[in-house]
Amino acid sequence: MVRILMSKKPRRPGAKIKKHQHLKNNIMAKYSKKAGEKVEEALHEQKEGKLKSGSGKKVTSKKQAIAIGLSEARKEGAKVPKKKD
Prior knowledge:
elongated; mainly alpha
């Protein structure tokens, strides 16, 4: 039995198929290993309650801890995308 392969059709009328969905698994890393290690370190410190922001206050937000880790990695020259304005 021969099966004809056809592109997937949307499940409902008006639904769109995502562009470049077939490339999902071939995405290159945005951050270097060094940057990943810095973020991991910052998150660990945040969980222990030892991570402090520039003003000296304790960091409680996970997002803020990640931002601090990326910032530290940037200062050390690691491959990290530019900050968004």
